[in-house]
Structures are given as structure tokens and as C-alpha cells.
Amino acid sequence: MNKKLDAFHLKVIAIVAMLLNHIGSGFRLFEYSDQLFFFTEFIGKLTFPIMAYLLVEGFHYTRNIKKYAARLAFFWIISIYPFHLLHSSNTPFSPTELVNNIFFTLLMGLILITLYGKTKNIILHILLVIAFSFATILSDWNLLGVLMIFGFYRIQNADLKKIVPPVYTVLIFLSLMVIVYLVAPGSVPWYELIAPLGILGTIPLLLNYNGQRGYSPNWVKWGFYLFYPLHMIVLILIRGMM
After folding, report:
1. Nearest Cα to 145, choosing from 124, 114, 169?
2. Per-residue pLDDT tens over the stretch 54-98
3. Are the beta carbons of 216 and 8 closer than 8 angstroms?
4. Is residue 1 part of a domain?
5. What CA–CA distance (Å, rounded) separates 17 from 9?
């Protein structure tokens, strides 16, 4: 099979999906069209699995884990306020309302797999996975994000590692949504029940990944990081003008 996607292609797909997702949530499209909002949510579910997989790839190839972690921490911190403003319309900043952004989830996942690889005690391994999963419970993609990162890291089979984590993440997502729906049907719109299926769209993309970095000059490398806070700031300004 001729695999045509490299890391550059995957990153472009991820940021386009992210942009659509944030347009949907930031502009509250669900107030105007359920179908349009569902589309932005469904496509948006491609973003984190791609980022999580490339994080693990970066972990295996980076020469300096500390610098990698510091880069994630820096963009987590500078994205805190834009993330809050975009997802909290007309709400003044308050630390009590803050939900950590995707870079925090990625950072916790990176620290988890780094520590996991340095220890051999099974009980400690279990405690590490539990601790770092719950550390992100108030973060974007919460504990499911860390569990997905761990799956991409821990599964050794080249194809299964691209299939199993998205599948079990969808199953957990859907199970939680169904439970909430059964307890309080009116609190879960139809699009929230089926939007997690968009995660499965990551599988053919990852299976078509050729393991190459692709086009990666420094401006592209840093541009992908900067896109996260900058696109949220732009969306906030556009929303304000509207």
C-alpha cells in the first residue's frame, strides 16, 4: 500500500478540523442550525486524535523531551485566556470557570508516557495512568485524551495502535452520552450523541500515514503551534464585531 500522508498533511487536516470545530462552538451555531453545528462537531473530532498520535511520534523522535514539554507548557499558558473567551461568550475571565485547553492535555500525556517508560513497576504504571488521566478531567478532551495518548504509545502493532485507541475512545464517549441521555433525555441533543463517531475518521488517515515528517521548515513548525491561540483570538474579534 502506497501511504501518501506525511506529518505535514496530518497537521493541516487537524488545524482545518479544529478551525471548523471552534467556529461551531465559538459562534454557538447550535442556536441556528443543529445540522450545521453537528457537521462542525463531527469534523472537529478529527483534531485531537491526530495531535495525540503525532505527539507520541514526536516523543519517540525528539532529542530533548524537556524542551518538547516546555514548548507544550508555553502554548498551554498563552492559550488559556483565548480558550476561555472563545468558549465562554460574554463571560468575564474567572479562574473558577477555567477549563484547560488542548495543550494541557497533550502535556499531561507527554509526561505520563515519559514517566511510564522510566519505570517497570506494574502498580506504579497503573497509578501513573490513573493520576494523569484525572489530572485532565477539567481539560479539553479530559481523561479520554490522556487515555488515547497512552494507547498510541503502549500498543506496539503498527496498525492496531492506529485503530484501537480511536475505537475505545468512541465507545467510552458514546457510553457516557447514552448514560446521560437515559438519566436526563432533554440534556443531550441528538448531535452530541453521534458526533463522537467522527473520531473514527482518524483511522483511515493514520493508516495512510507514511511516517515521514514532510514539509517542515521552522516557520511551519512554529506556525502550527501559534495557530492555536491566534485563530481563537481572530474568532473572538470577529464575533465581537458581529
Report:
1. 169
2. 999 999 999 899 999 999 999 999 999 999 999 875 444 444 455
3. yes
4. no
5. 12
Helix, strand, coil proportions of the chain in percent (round to 5)?
Answer: 80, 0, 20
Domain that holds residue 226: 7-241
Closest CA to 39 of 26, 24, 22: 24
**∠ CA 142-161-151 to the nearest 5 degrees?**
30
Establish if 2 belongs to a structural domain.
no
Nearest-angstrom CA–CA distance, 46 and 153: 18
Q: What is the mean pLDDT of residues 202-219?
A: 94
Q: How far apart are CA 153 and CA 173, in angstroms?
A: 20
pTM, entire model:
0.93
What DSSP state is assigned to residue 88? Answer: S
Side-chain-side CA neighbours of residue 141 (13 Å): 31
| Nearest CA-CA partner of 110 in 138, 145, 159, 81 | 145
Structural domain includes residue 51: yes
- CA gap 86, 210 in Å, rounded: 35
Give the DSSP per-residue string, 145-193: HHHHHHHHHH--STTHHHHHHHHHHHHHHHHHHHHHHHH-GGGS-HHHH
Phi, psi torsion values for 208, nearest 5 degrees? -95, 5
Q: Structurally, how many domains does the chain consist of?
A: 1
Q: If you search the block for the grid coordinates 490522556, which residue do you land on?
A: 146
Residue type, 181: Y
Q: Is 35 helix (H, G, I), strand (E, B) or coil?
A: helix
